[in-house]
Amino acid sequence: MTSEAKIEHYENFPVASVLLPREMRAPVGVIYNFARTADDIADEGDATNAERHAGLAAYQAELDKIAAGAPTSPDKPLFAALARVIAEHKLSVQPFSDLLSAFDQDIETKRYATFAELRDYTRRSADPVGRIMLALFKLDTPENVACSDDICSALQLINFWQDVEVDWRKVRVYLPQEDMARFGVTDADIGAQKYDDNWRALMRYEVDFARKMMLRGAPLANRVPGRFGLELCCVVHGGLRILDMIEAVDYDVFRHRPQLGKRDGIRVFLRGLCMKLGGKPPRG
After folding, report:
1. What Gene Ontology molecular-function terms does this entry list (predicted)?
2. Using one digit for the tens of pLDDT, what is the confidence trace for 31-68?
3. Is residue 8 part of a domain?
4. Which of 8, 27, 68, 206 is most buried, by CB atoms within 10 Å?
5. Residue 32 class from Cβ within 10 Å (0-12 exposed, 13-18 middle, 19+ buried)?
6. What angle (nearest 5°) sits at the alpha carbon of residue 74, between those of residues 69 and 78?
């Protein structure tokens, strides 16, 4: 499948960020490598579904060895490195297994009937990232974890809303079917890129929900000290900026996929810095 050395684009990970303390960049890189390559097994290349499931099962088998304190396979150096990070930082193996569970689900599941189903997915596909990061920094209190879950799942939802057209080409629709029915939008409408009042009403609802979730979790960034806290402030404002950009194109993500450019990056950093220095999270 993909090389274990491949590190490219796992969306929700602050890998190698200059805002991360230097001593944390190596362990975060190892964890990122695990998440990215596992995601690629599920989603990249031309493997069959059976091959994808088998690839992820092999990853889970290595995690089981780590959990049992057994040696990992000598031909899989990624897991030897991951075992060292987990042992050194006293991390739980469960969030890593949760990620694999979500990636495995992505192979077969192309629609979500309800938001509850979608949220169950993001609890495993997005929330583990924040939980791992908090555990690395020894900040994983129940209150912090709850806020982190809101931030991570909000980021995932924002990614879904900006990528409706991209996901459609992969035969995927992450918009909950119950929400689509409520606003009179069908799969056929998405396929036809039908941009009308129904679509705008649906996307306005989803954008508002994601923003409220992000703002609910945002106080975490002010509780986290130092450069990691600044990183979180920028993450929060990056997600909010994408939502602003979706609104700016009047929800026409079919023809205008929002992406953060250089100027947006500067704006996000300055807003994140102001948030960190001011000690107050953004308001809706």
Report:
1. geranylgeranyl diphosphate synthase activity; squalene synthase [NAD(P)H] activity
2. 999 999 999 999 888 899 999 999 999 999 999 999 99
3. no
4. 206
5. buried
6. 80
